Amino acid sequence: MIEIKTVNKRSELRSFIEFPNELYRDNPYYVPYLTMDELNNLNIFSERNDKNNFALKCFLAYKDGKIAGRIAAIRCDRHNEITKEKRLRFTRFDVIDNYEVFSKMMDAVIDYAKQLGLNIIHGPLGYNDLDREGVLTFGFDQPGNFETLYNHPYYKEFLEKYGFTVDAEWKEFKIPIPKKVDERISKIATNVMQRKKLHYFNIKSLSQVINRYGKDIFKLIDEAYGDLYGVIPLTDEEVDNMISQFKLILNKRYLSLVLDENDNLVGFGLAFSSMSDAVRKSRGKILPLGVFRILHAVNNPKVIDLALIAVKKEYQNFGVTGIIMQQIIKNAIEDGVEYAESNPELVNNLAIQQQWKNFENVVNHKARAVYSLKI
User: What is the pTM assigned to this prediction?
Assistant: First the structure.
């Protein structure tokens, strides 16, 4: 017997968060969410239901009395206002290898969409573009990232069987870190900085960056990524929440800020020390040992995850992206980092993919997609 229940209690929310950890218990590639962050995120957005043009509902699927799947539905009016569409996002989508369970779960999401007067479902997409998104469609034998989703191959099969079609696709790349700085690229970066009167911000502490440029960084994210699929402007509440969560996992050596002659932010780049192994070993728990594993991973990286690069529009196409990458790669070489993993890059975003031509033995090792369905 299969039942779909709405999550109403904190204990049910914890079960909702923990379900994928059980589903992937023996999978060496899956990386959990941090439980503390998930509780915070889902509580914040549950409290915003019917306020600030937002709605969130979480569902748990039970088969013979045991949790067999989970899914959350998000109505984000900010996105619908931009696109002039009536879409519902689905997120936190995990299920056992049973199509009937999946089907009934998705039926519940469709019913909810109809109640809200919406006519398109798409996902997995989170509450903003900094949340995990996209079903993994290739690279199931590759270690997951802390910032991206991992799932079984049958997720894609279930979605397509139900009638979903691909709405957007991303590629991800594995980039070996060179043994030394490419002097040719370094010279080009120096020339661009001199010609445009740019300079790196000397980062003494993360709090210094957050206090001086924190809000500017997120405004730049909105500007640089605003035209990409699924991106919506961040609210002040979301910015504050992100800053709070990022503090623990940032290494200042992998944060690059480029300023103009008046010390205004022109561009920035961010890479994370890979926390995959640390979070996996701790099963998403901060205490008692998780925080020590995470801090060790942050300060002793062997792999870095290239998270974000954003450049003001008037400075794009002048090589500022290369300037930012140059500083991050230089520090990675000094720290003995073995390789970097790109963030998901839209398949038609050829400009960003062009930068990898300067590295040897780059591999497209993962792909993912967002699916949509008209109802």
Answer: 0.92
